[in-house]
Design goal:
Layout (H helix, E strand, L loop, with lengths): L1 H6 L10 H18 L1 H21 L1 H14 L12 H29 L1
Helix pairs in contact: 2-3, 3-5
Length: 114
């Protein structure tokens, strides 16, 4: 019984804190940038680059989860929150690459300031 529990694949819990953690890190590094610009820009750049890479790497899973959760949703049914392939395409090919580039620019500026 004990050995079988080692090889059994259990379902991993969903990460529900990730968007809040992203916003918290952005706020912390923007605040830190007021006092120590190099640290703030470095933290902001790393946060933006890592988040953009994770979103791009998991884009299909995120899209599938959003479509499934939209069907179960009771409140925000509407034109702007409805899963639309155009919004998905804009996010994947326009928004997140720009976030990645802003992160790289932030890292470059932090390097120039140091």
């Amino acid at each position: 019984m004990m050995l079988s529990s080692l090889v059994t694949n259990h379902k991993a819990p969903k990460a529900r804190f990730t968007p809040g953690l992203f916003l918290l890190l952005l706020i912390i590094f923007i605040w830190l940038g007021q006092y120590k610009p190099t640290y703030g820009l470095t933290g902001l750049g790393v946060t933006l680059v890592v988040t953009a890479i994770l979103v791009e790497a998991n884009r299909d899973r995120i899209w599938d989860m959003y479509r499934k959760s939209y069907k179960k949703q009771k409140g925000l049914m509407g034109i702007l929150s409805k899963p639309n392939k155009i919004y998905y395409t804009l996010n994947v090919f326009f928004l997140w690459p720009i976030v990645f580039l802003v992160g790289l620019v932030s890292l470059f500026v932090a390097y120039q300031l140091s």
